[in-house]
């Protein structure tokens, strides 16, 4: 069995509740499964994790209404991980 091939991927996220946007870095570990196939396991902050698109939650409001964007795309301009979110205006009746 070969050593795993590790790829660092930056995944952008956008909360559909509070509009908070952020990025997280994941490690994708690609390895042989011992039967001629490939298996990918994920790590986030050094700990085994689910893939980035499985049940992400917003670090700002804890909402589970989070959109995962493909690696390499950028969250909306002006949003950084530690900035306050842009709150959409309420419609007037």
**Order of SSEs:** EEEEE
Rg, nearest Å: 17 Å
Give the rounded overall mean pLDDT.
82
Uncertain regions: pLDDT < 50 for 5+ in a row? Answer: 78-90
DSSP strand tally? 5
Coarse shape: elongated
Total helical elements: 0
Strand line-up across the major sheet: 4-3-2-1-5
Strand proportion: 35-45%
Distance between the termini: 65 Å
**Largest β sheet strand count, sense and barrel closure:** 5 strands, antiparallel
Structural class: mainly beta
Helix content: under 10%
Architecture overview:
By secondary structure, the chain is an all-beta fold. It contains no helices and 5 strands. It has strands spanning 5-15, 21-32, 38-44, 47-49, 66-68. It has a 5-stranded antiparallel beta sheet, with no helix packed on it. A hairpin with a 5-residue loop joins strand 1 (5-15) and strand 2 (21-32). The protein is elongated and about 45 Å long. The relative contact order is 0.28. The model is unreliable at 78-90 (pLDDT under 50).
What is the topological layout?
Layout: E1 5-15, E2 21-32, E3 38-44, E4 47-49, E5 66-68
Antiparallel strand pairs: 1-2, 1-5, 2-3, 3-4
Region (Disordered): 69-93
Organism: Actinoallomurus acaciae
Protein name: C2H2-type domain-containing protein
Produce a short descriptive summary.
The protein is mainly β. The chain has no helices and five strands. The protein is elongated.
Kindly list the characteristics that best describe this protein:
five-stranded antiparallel beta sheet, elongated, 93 residues, 0% helix, 5 strands, mainly beta
